[in-house]
C-type lectin domain-containing protein
Amino acid sequence: MNNTDIFFLFLSFFLSFFLSFRSLFFPNGSALRLSVYRTEKNWSAAQEYCRREHTDLATVYNMRDMNRLCGDSCKEGWIGLHDQQHTNRTWHWWSDGNGSSFRNWDQTPQSNHCAAITRDGRWRSESCETKKHFYCYNANVVLIPLNKTWDQAVNYCREHHHDLVHVRNKHQQRWVGQIAQMANSPFVWLGLHYTCTLQFWFWVTDKSVRYNNWASDQPMNHCDMSGAMEKGGKNQWYKKPDENQFNFISELV
């Protein structure tokens, strides 16, 4: 067997492993529950309201979310997509910090910096100061007051709900932290895990780790470790051995 054959054999093995790994840990689907408000606000005021009363302005992951959001007919209103000025990644930023790449523009976005849904279900860029209806979402999470290992917690959440929780930004961090305070264990499991094979931390809900709240003294790269949030204090994150048993927080379907 020559070097070329060995290379392609290794490549085939790696791709097979990665696809199996992804199907095991990365289920499809969105756990968002969306609400539309007929009160008219500008984009910033709508964002403030959604963060106070729900989780944030709506993030749309795919056409299924669009169909759930609009139903039989769409109401014109703000969603969480906005264009962060003075960066190279235009129209990349969602209000909740999510990196969803799904887009549904009705035309090339103009120089306005906030996105709204039109009556026909497409998106349009408009002045952020315009007052419109708006769409909020709830992340819908619940504390499970049972002490389980990290793997057991993952299995429980997937069997009864959706998955272990992932934290997108400081606003969700605050909300999840409030729920963690009701736990009967010193930490609660998050859906955060380190893979030695691929050498990175990942959320099991197929989201990249954009926001984090690690305690400053936490070494990052250890095998057989997962992320847990402390019940008290600043609700910081700590890496803990997978076999430790804690309460955990599930995202609902």
The helical segments are 3-25, 43-53, 63-70, 150-160, 170-180. The chain has two domains: 33-138, 141-251. The chain has five helices and 14 strands. The first strand starts at residue 33 and ends at 41.
